Automatic annotation (TrEMBL):
This is Large ribosomal subunit protein uL14m. Coiled coil: none annotated. The keyword Isomerase does not apply. Keywords: Ribonucleoprotein, Ribosomal protein. Pfam families: Ribosomal_L14. GO terms for cellular component: mitochondrial large ribosomal subunit. InterPro entries: Ribosomal_uL14 (IPR000218), Ribosomal_uL14_bac-type (IPR005745), Ribosomal_uL14_CS (IPR019972), Ribosomal_uL14_sf (IPR036853). Belongs to the universal ribosomal protein uL14 family. Component of the mitochondrial ribosome (mitoribosome), a dedicated translation machinery responsible for the synthesis of mitochondrial genome-encoded proteins, including at least some of the essential transmembrane subunits of the mitochondrial respiratory chain. The mitoribosomes are attached to the mitochondrial inner membrane and translation products are cotranslationally integrated into the membrane.
């Protein structure tokens, strides 16, 4: 479960490395985010922008202190699937998105949860090397 001030790893190539949750975008009374939920984040640590980047790779880069939206793709807290299996990951991770819901990066570098496909984030699922 992702709460306010939770730190998450970023698993895409948008330039951010670590982000902090500042708002959970939910329509319910709960204030925690699970896999597949949208959150608003601030970038706490980012990769430096190199001089050889051009084109779309440079326009989608984020810098430290930028405020973005993200989709939670992994949580450390265990959750139960409808078939009865309990799944938990080693870390909390997210993918940065724009206002339309498309990912900012062009690659996802690690495993994402299967629940993203059920929540219609097909672009993120197709970029991921493995769906667990």
């Amino acid at each position: 479960m992702i709460y306010l001030k939770s730190l998450l790893n970023v698993v895409d190539n948008s330039g951010a490395q670590i982000v902090e949750c500042i708002k959970v975008l939910r329509h319910g009374p709960r204030s925690c985010a699970h896999v597949g939920d949208q959150i608003t984040v601030v970038v706490k640590q980012a990769k430096p922008i190199s001089a050889e980047l051009t084109g779309s790779a440079l326009t989608n880069r984020v810098k430290r202190r930028d405020i973005c939206r993200a989709i939670v793709v992994r949580t450390k807290a265990p959750f139960r699937r409808p078939d009865g299996t309990v799944v938990r990951f080693d870390d909390n991770a997210c993918v940065l998105i724009n206002k339309n819901g498309d990912p900012l990066g062009t690659r996802v570098s690690s495993v994402v949860a299967r629940e993203l496909k059920q929540k219609e984030f097909n672009k993120i699922v197709s970029l991921a090397p493995k769906v667990f």
